[in-house]
Design a protein that fits this description.
By secondary structure, the protein is mainly β. The protein contains 3 helices and 16 strands. A hairpin with a 2-residue loop joins strand 10 and strand 11.
């Protein structure tokens, strides 16, 4: 393989296009196991017999391909990057064109590629952080005070990036998902919300809750540490026994209630309008 790094000079050859690449040149992991298609066009001034060849990280790869008599400037051309070259890290992709008459070689502008094979979160994903009300079992009344949504906090993890997808599991049942935003990265946390309708599907049991993270490249993390949460959504808190304001202990003297008695209900009853 011939290294052409020293042959680069100013030219009008446009950079190749790699359709499989995401923003920033990131390659999805599912595109790494087969030849990666590199697209370019017949350049201005090309003639039948002129050749083009892949250049990967400054090294010419594969065979030279010749422009056919039927191909005109602007027509599409294709090269392939062998999958064995797609190692983790940043790479440069260009192509070399040659005039076979004077043997002049030109190198195109480059396209950057990024191969990311590292799962997010290694070596550890911390458990979801839930409100203190979940520590002794979450009741229906407590959930109602939260607006019928139980919010969990997922702390920052190694490799946290905008676009990561967080998938939650409650007793292995898939729960809500969250996509990490730019603000989440800055705040070093992201939030997941469990609605009452989902929690009621779980039932009144104590069960593990955990999550996984999939990054933009498609790398899947290990499962996070689990946290056990007990739900008590069908449990009814007994109402406090009412008392009589005019009574002494449990005894009411009729003389103290000539105009009627006042029933007092303790604030712990948490009565609401309706």
């Amino acid at each position: 393989m011939y290294n052409v790094a020293t042959e680069k000079k100013e030219n009008s050859l446009t950079a190749p296009v790699i359709a499989a690449a995401l923003n920033g040149g990131l390659l999805p992991v599912d595109s790494l196991n087969s030849p990666l298609e590199v697209l370019l066009n017949v350049w201005q001034g090309a003639r039948p017999g002129y050749t083009y060849q892949l250049c990967f990280d400054g090294v010419l790869i594969g065979i030279k391909k010749a422009i056919l008599p039927s191909q005109m400037p602007g027509d599409p051309l294709k090269l392939d990057i062998p999958p064995e070259l797609l190692k983790e890290g940043r790479h440069s992709v260009t192509y070399a064109v040659e005039n076979p008459i004077n043997m002049v070689v030109e190198i195109s502008a480059e396209t950057a590629l990024v191969v990311d094979l590292t799962p997010p979160g290694a070596p550890l994903l911390a458990p979801i952080i839930f409100p203190a009300q979940t520590q002794n079992g979450l009741t229906s009344e407590e959930l109602q005070t939260m607006g019928n949504v139980l919010s969990g906090t997922i702390a920052s993890y190694n490799g946290m990036q905008e676009g990561d997808v967080v998938r939650t599991y409650w007793n292995d049942l898939p729960g809500p998902m969250a996509v990490v935003s730019k603000d989440d990265v800055g705040l070093r946390r992201t939030m997941v919300d469990f609605a009452r309708s989902f929690l009621e599907l779980i039932g009144d049991i104590k069960a593990p809750v955990y999550y996984t993270v999939t990054d933009l490249a498609g790398n899947l993390s290990m499962a996070s540490e689990a946290v056990d949460v007990k739900l008590q959504l069908t449990h009814v808190t007994p109402l406090p026994t009412p008392t009589l304001k005019e009574a002494t202990g449990t005894t009411l003297d009729p003389a103290n209630a000539s105009s009627g008695a006042t029933v007092v209900i303790d604030a712990t009853a948490n009565l609401q309008a309706g």
